[in-house]
Queue: 4 jobs
Job 1
Amino acid sequence: MADPLRLGIAGLGTVGAGVVGIVQRHTELLTARTGRTVTITAVSARSRGKDRGVDLSAYAWEDDPVALAMRDDVDVFVELMGGDSGPALDATKAALAAGKDVVTANKAMLAHHGQDLAEMAEAAGRTIRFEAAVAGGIPVIKALTESLAANEITRVMGVMNGTCNYILTRMENAGLPYDEVFAEADALGYLEADPTLDVGGIDAGHKLALLAAIAFGTKPDFDGMRIEGIERISIDDIRRAADMGYRIKLLGVAQRTKDGIEQRMQPCLVPAISPLGQLEGGTNMVVIEGDAVEQIVLRGPGAGMGPTASAVMGDVCDLARGIRIPTFGQPAALLEDATPSRSAQPASYYLRLMLDDRPGTLAQVATILGQNGLSIHRMRQYDHKEQVAPVLIVTHAATPDALDAAMRALETTDVVLVPPVALRIEAE
Ligand code: NAP
Ligand code: HSE
């Protein structure tokens, strides 16, 4: 039998402890499936004394993850600390420089430094695997890099942040306001240490940037993405969307346009009866479209100890089998710059306007929409509070540029009392 594959694991939190648990629980199964024994030789975390629910007594301890990454008795450095720079980046670079493969769940680090790290890995004849970084337990990286490798990918879209989907579906199902459900998600431990990464759409944006790089053969381009979070979605938006047969989702879309690569992460309305519309709680869903395969839909747990550790160990098994695919599916030198672009494809939009309730207000709004080429398809005015009239409008299909121009014009009038909310209605 081949030599054991020796792991050094930095980070023993939710994911790290899950990985240790799988290695300990499934020793024989891993050997049978990979033809090698998978062992852990050394671990690292901030606090040595913490009870992590797994027995670490057989492993060497390193206070410094960089020292762990460089150990001679480590073949694969497993980075599960998190953070787009700092110890995670330092230790990953040290591991590659020392000739180790890297497995990580760290989407933030790869979205910002993926290209440099991929180049480093290739120079060292190594790779970085990151299945766990996108959509938790769903094998979406493997699907794109391997199973769909013969397709020209036309679009990747989906719900990639479980926390936001939990918040939006819980608001709808329990009829609770955003602030209350946000506090609930915090108490349940769902939120990232910096919650704006979740609710601001940034975490999901990191994931979409990685998928787009593989799908379109481009360098990860997080900075070229249009990102909007869910903080401004009210329970009223959710109810009104439901009245019209839609649900609101934080939806990521990446597609090639004639000018470049469009990447957007924003709350959208999707048909309530569609697969995306029916997605509940922390579940993720990724839809991939390719010229040969047409469309596939992957659905599953987007986070949590078991699902995320499962994805990390899938990568470890590939390395144990000797499978070493370039980090983003093709040599880093072949990845093109991703020219950010914006689809001119028209869509209908949902608009929420809080209007000054006096004669002529609606006429003014209709004029601004009309002047910018937006036609009203449906409109409702809901319960007034004092002088404020909430008005909801669904437009006919309009281009994103026309929508932006109309929104800018609406914001400058004195009849729109709070910044308007516009949500794209995404046809699946
Ligand atoms: P976590 O529970 O907060 O654990 C982080 C671990 O890293 C802890 O063990 C911590 O040590 C250790 N650590 C932090 N800074 C360190 C440093 N400077 N030196 C050594 N160790 C350090 O995080 P997690 O939820 O497991 O997430 C880990 C990674 O997986 C992140 O990149 C995250 O985005 C990604 N991810 C997580 C999930 C999920 O469901 N949780 C899903 C997909 C991807 P102490 O325990 O001693 O504090
Ligand atoms: N905060 C992330 C989420 C964790 O809610 O989906 C998994 O990446």
Job 2
Amino acid sequence: MKIWSLLLFIMTTLAAAHAAVSHAEFGKLPDGSPVTIYTLKSPKIEMRVMTFGARVVSITTPDRNGKKANIVLGYDKLEDYVKDNKTYFGVVPGRYANRIANGKFTLDGKEYHLSVNEGTNTLHGGKEGFDRRNWIGKEVPGGVEFTLVSPDGDQGFPGKLTAHVRYTLQGDAVTIHYSATTDKPTVVNLTNHAYFNLSGAGSGSILNEKLTIYADKFTPVNSSLIPTGEIKSVAGTPFDFTRPETIGARINANDEQLKLAHGYDQNWVLHGKMGTLHPAARVYDPASGRVLQEETTEPGVQFYTGNFLDGTFSGPNGRYDFRTGLCLETQHFPDSPNHPSFPSSELRPGQTYSSETRWSFAVE
Ligand code: GLA
């Protein structure tokens, strides 16, 4: 009896314990700089992240029968990541995730002009966003912390920004903690751009997965996917995910917002209180039984159904076609620097930007 309780105690402690962490060189960038890949292992989950783009490379979890698969879209070779400057697989976009309209904003009466990389807009921080940088990695208990110093004027943004992204794995949950400081007033919005496919990366469409978003409002967009400023109720629209809904059930509905984005690619306004961890979304995959629960301290989440994926890129387990991955990017609302009514994304000297998102994995 005593032995059993001891065993049970050891097993519970192990499950809750910090992940084991190791690292290795993943390859070299065209300029010769080495990229390090970190492996975080807990009893059930293995996650790999790398310095190039501070990005998630893979997350391997068991399905309901214990069969393991990688559930985020990616590649097995560094050169494929270097070639792909379209998808943002697993990256930390920055300095400002999502779009800034016409590549400009005004702060303290001064207009700033940014690097423009999508039509007339700035997407994910501009041409040389944080996703193209080789961050500095350092092992921490149960994970890794990446650091990037973005100089004053980088892609047009004011202020020297020092950013940290820390990934830790504990039991069945991955925590991502973002922080940043600046030496001049600036704007900042960091997230993770992992594309999940709970049936396995490269296994096909995500349209059969069931989604809940803990929000009853969203921010509609114009034809260049910039929020119009309206905060709209999801009630009676295909944007209502307040109860679990199959992603594909309404995605081709005759709805202006869905047509503009060729699927879902909007920001939802989360119920929870900004600054404290609250539920953002839950995905359930009936085929594998896998469940992803996402929590965040952020006010919004961008739900994107991989509408720009077109089969150009492939991973070790298959082609990344239209709508074969889904993103749930926790964030401040897109284009906030141009919408005074949205929660502010400004950061001033002396303040610390701090944001956290947690992904918990389970099966049902
Ligand atoms: C975000 C955007 C999408 C798209 C992807 C990257 O999710 O909202 O419109 O740009 O990034 O392809």
Job 3
Amino acid sequence: MTNDNIKMWTELGIDLEKHDNLLNALGPIFQEIYLSQQNRPDGMAFFDFVVGDIHGIRVRELRQQAKNGGKVVATYCVFVPEEVVWAAGAIPVGLCAGTQFSVPIAEEVLPRNTCALIKSSFGFKLGRICPYVESSHLIVGETTCDGKKKMFEILAQHQPVYVMEVPNKKTRLARDLWLGEVVAFKDVIEELTGNRITADKLERATRQVNNRRRALKRLYQLRQANPVPISGKDALLVTQVSFYDDVNRATQQINALCDEVEVRVTTGEGAFTKNAPRILISGSPMAIPNWKLHHILETAGAAVVCEESCTGTRFFGDLISEDGGTIEEQLKAISERYMKINCACFTPNQERLNDIVRLAREYRVDGVVHYNLQFCHTYANEAVLVEQTLAREGIPLLCIETDYADEDIGQLRTRVDAFLEMIGR
Ligand code: BJ8
């Protein structure tokens, strides 16, 4: 912890005592979960470094952006089209919201039976613990679930918030509504930044974000190899860091990692033994530092080979057309790409069920673990359909409902062990 960082956090109004406690807790957890892994690719050093300095260098870059007159736009959902933000010269940051640390702070205001992701994000603001929140000029929310919708209203008492309306169906009418939302978002961002988004700028931003999507897809495809060349924990960390690092730097680092992992695949070098059970995790997103389920599975001898989630395939799947065109044409292409995200907020959501089966086949998994954040009703209810679908396909499934606390770790280990024994690997 350098004096420069302390000065920066003080200027941001961070509660230093709570913040110290958070960072002091994070260090040993990262050591235990990440740095204790054997035979990791060297390319993970960059991502370890970013987490090791999680509230340092990147926050300083955001502060510099503000000092130069630029804006920082914080988001909570992969539906917010980041291309629009980059195109206006602003910086988007996906907020973390993956720690139990801020949950009790939120529970002073929000009902306890709210999902941990919502409580964690709100607690960060209420407790003034997160320099990313405090560095942002606008928080962009969305109407994906009722808990978030209402939390954003309360959050707006503390910081400027703009909410995008994400429809709950994918009909023609709903798509028109969403296109209108994307166009309105462009206007909001132009007004915030004072910069006009031109067709050229938007095309450049689209290419940049597409390139990061391509890099992440490349990394995921390498996980299809047997033995799997990189742990699920490491792959998850790469995705998590991509939410708040600079888009071009992240792309470069992911591709450098992929170059190394490609060699591993060629030489048959694995992060696990060849016969390790291969698991697809499907469900709610896992924001930093939520590594709980991956850690339980991988210390039980399984290899997590893919995540069907917003901190997985839903984040980078589907590219946006790079054909350019007018600003209107590009915004339409952007809106169409985002409507391909198969979040459980949609009804019906057959596409997600299809995705799970397709990914289970592509990654040759031995079983699927459905991950549900407690009190998230959309994913919990959709799990019934996931169960029916996977039963028809003969793919073993384990449904886990949990939160960010440690209390149920022993029970989860027992269930995971029984599942791995049942799938016989
Ligand atoms: S597109 S998954 S990132 S909404 S877990 S807060 S849904 S009660 S996170 Fe999500 Fe966007 Fe969908 Fe993806 Fe609500 Fe559920 Fe909590 Fe959730």
Job 4
Amino acid sequence: MKQVVSKEVEKNLYGLTYPAMLELCEEIGEKPYRAMQIMKWVYHKGASSIDDMTDISKKTREKLKSRLVLELPKVLLDKPSNDGTHKWLIQLESGNAIEMVFIPEDDRGTLCVSSQVGCALECSFCSTARQGFNRNLSTAEIVGQVMLAKRLLGEYEGDVQQSQNRRVTNVVLMGMGEPLLNFTNVTQAIDIMLNDYGFGLSKRRVTLSTSGVVPALYRLKEVSDVSLAISLHAPYDTLRNELVPINKKYPLAELLEACKAYITESSAYRKITWEYVMLKDVNDREEDAFALAKLIKDIPGKVNLIPFNPFPNSGYECSSMNRINRFREILQRQGVVTTVRKTRGEDIDAACGQLAGRVNDRTKRTKTTNS
Ligand code: SAH
């Protein structure tokens, strides 16, 4: 992917894709292999300053320092949960804060990162939506979250090989924000996550979750082959319009068409994860499960049922465990692979939709809803 390196805006090394690094090296009169060497220092060895790159001459390091900084966001608060989930409140330069969550499982460690400060979409059951939108995160701020988590987990320390579930083996763009509304920075960050000289994660292990910004999905398949999760939450337009209002602009039929194109016309991981939040008496009836199975039957994928995580004045309740199991049974009998997401980190408010952060709402939505 071609990245334009703006001298003003992008000075942070964590924001540069490999092609951009190549371009920068050319500009400062360095050979192309230098770009690979720098990336490896940063992402493989975890160098925290340009001066750590000891096999690069001092003169070259000075040149690099005149163009680049290596700057990570800072940890404001560190909250470990009883179940091993970890939430960090991250301070950004602008004075805003975002949250980042690490979820250890048996054989993997999943890092949930944010793509925006707040969110401009107004999904009715999500607490981030209540805070309104402040700004997009830069590429460096998105990549910086992964680097910061790896450091905090001690991945770069000595020769100790951490067990799989104490390392960042998977990244999900499921924190605050709608990733496809921050298209350029998010796709550049994904590029760095997947690149062999970057974090080198496989496309199966990096998942972008979207509420369904259809035109951006078509653009995504041109530049990336990352795994896709779709926040479906309802099998009919009437209900989805209410829960995920962007559906009024891009209704289900169009969304499903775009999903199909994404997995069939690109080299993407060929299975979609359909996310479906379980809301008591709203979308959890037996007929909803049948309708859902019918809707997605032609597209390879699996359903992930997410128990609703309540927050004050949400107006919703989570479906009972009985209902959730019944819903899953129906889907499975219809041939749809279905999992139920274990709710993690509840005691620290790190579960889905509870990522509060601290947002200065530029849309002033918080004020309007409070008054
Ligand atoms: N904007 C993106 C990514 C952020 S949300 C998207 O919509 O996909 C990540 C997932 O958590 C989405 O499926 C979202 O719908 C879900 N979610 C949001 N609030 C929730 C809540 N209170 N309980 C359970 N899941 C929630």
